[in-house]
Amino acid sequence: MVLFTVSLRPPFQNVTLGSRIRQLTDERGRHFWIITVTKRAKKLALADLPFVGRGTPSGEWFRRHWLVVGTSRELRDIPQAVKVLGEELVLFRDDRGRIGLLGLHCPHRGTSLEYGDIEDGGIRCPYHGWIFDVGGRCLAMPAEPAEPGFAGKVRHLSYPVQEQGGLLFAFLGPEAETPPLPRYLPLVSTDGQRSLEATRLYNYNWFNFIENGADPAHFSILHRADPNDGTWRSWFFNFRDIPPFDAVEMPYGMKVISRKPGPTADTEYVDEKSFALPAILQIGDTEFTHFNQPREALAAGSHNAHLMFVTPNDDASFTLYTVNHYTGPDQEFFAKLAPSRRVQAPLEKKSYDRREFSPFRGNVRTEDIACQATQKLLGQRGEQLATSDRGVILLRKLILNDIEAVRRNSKPRALTNAQQHDGLVTIDSFTGVRVKGVS
User: Fold this and answer.
1) What are the start-end ranges of the H helices in 136-245?
2) What one-character DSSP code corresponds to residue 393?
3) Interatomic CA distance for residues 308 and 320, integer angstroms
4) In whole angstroms, what is the distance from residue 347 CA to residue 361 CA?
5) What is the dihedral of CA 400, 403, 405, 406, to 10 degrees?
6) Is residue 25 over pLDDT 70?
7) In the chain, is it the N or the C terminus that has fewer CB atoms within a 10 Å radius of its CB?
8) Geometric angle at alpha carbon 53, from 37 and 172, rounded to 5°
9) pLDDT digits (tens, 9 = 90+) for 292-335
10) Averaged pLDDT, 326-345
11) Per-residue DSSP letter, 105
12) Three-point CA angle 411, 169, 340, nearest 5°
């Protein structure tokens, strides 16, 4: 990054490494020197990963990807205030059905457009009536003189939005670098059934949540169940017999594969959980876990992809958008699944229990929150990593390497992977029985 350029004559003082010196001659034959002083990029560290504001390494990396900012079914005739990567924005659908994502505050005097009216081809500020279309162009200023082109001189912050599979994706990066939106198989497939779960807001850092997906050991410990209840989950993720796992790098990111001996000598039970860049998790054991199936049911293999898109709101919160894509034979699958996916009423808390997140036992979601929300930010917590953290270590490495590549003006890995497959992104999450050794 160029900080400044000056013209000097020797001797030079305070000229540091990273400065470039050129000698020039003017029309009278006099010599002078041009010194361009540059700032070297700070070395990337793990402590940089949690922070997503503009200008931060992670923030600029996220801004090179399409991120989920809402759902089609929740965006109706009322604008929605959203925060994405620290930016305060307003999401709306205009009276022609087009979707816009603009800066939350009107550029006139700062009123929130969350209270705007949807009319006349855009969103109208409630205070003085300025109207902005989905591209941020000002269409009208009712209280201003009818000077031709005056409104057109005002351009409000706007980002492009596209719909896919019921989700709304936005690109917050440079307009000239806007890539095609990757086509995620569970969102674009015409096979099977698709269901969107309730949008969920979490009040802790996005990275604490995402690295949890590369940590299969915690399933056997934090989420342990009655080992004698006869289900595949309590047998496979047995607290006393934790399954070994492999952390495998993939074109889209990575996956962890947990394994146990299968019903025959040449087979094994496997459970795959994947992380896809930039912040996507996918698991495949939903139909077995939530339906309390025995291990014998795994012979048919999994048919449901449980896909989670994580969008950081800021450094202290994120939003989770979840899609299920089922390709099995049960036409009532989602009706049967729904009761187990509802947000449960909190359990009664003991009068002397002062813990913020208790009671938390007995529900996967509250168990995760209690552990992840109480972690400090990466770089601010003390850590003693062990062999069971190899999945987490790989995930951190992948993200660091990809951020570094973007800092060198390379294309993010997720976009390269999509481009190499005609825009289609396929993520592994098989749960079932298969021949030993397959990765």
Assistant:
1) 185-188, 206-210, 217-221, 232-236
2) H
3) 7
4) 10
5) 180
6) no
7) N
8) 100
9) 889 899 999 999 999 999 999 999 999 999 999 999 999 999 99
10) 83
11) B
12) 120
Dig out the tokens for 74 from the structure: 């929740």
CA distance 313 to 204: 10
Question: How far is Cα 58 from Cα 49, in angstroms, rounded to an integer?
Answer: 6
How far, in Å, CA of 101 to CA of 86, rounded?
A: 14
Which pair of tokens denotes residue 180? 């095609």
Which tens digits make up the pLDDT trace of 190-229? 999 999 999 999 999 999 999 999 999 999 999 988 878 8
User: In the sheet that 99-103 helps form, which strands lie side by side, from edge to edge?
Assistant: 80-84, 87-93, 99-103, 158-159
- Angle, helices 390-407/413-420, rounded to nearest 10 degrees: 90
The three-point CA angle 244-381-39 to 5° equals: 110
Q: Extract long-range pairs of 91-97: CB within 8 Å, 24+ residues apart.
A: 91/161, 91/168, 92/116, 92/118, 92/123, 93/118, 94/118, 94/121, 94/122, 94/123, 94/133, 94/134, 95/119, 95/120, 95/121, 96/121
Alpha carbon distance 157, 87 (integer Å): 11
Q: What b-and-e string marks burial along 164-189, b requiring 16 or more CB atoms within 10 Å of the CB?
A: bbebbbbbbbeeeeebebbbbbbbeb
304 φ, ψ (degrees, to nearest 5) = -120, 125
Q: Taking the CB of residue 51, how many other CB atoms lie within 10 A of it?
A: 21
Helix (H) or strand (E) holding 341: helix 333-341
Place of tokens 């941020």: 136
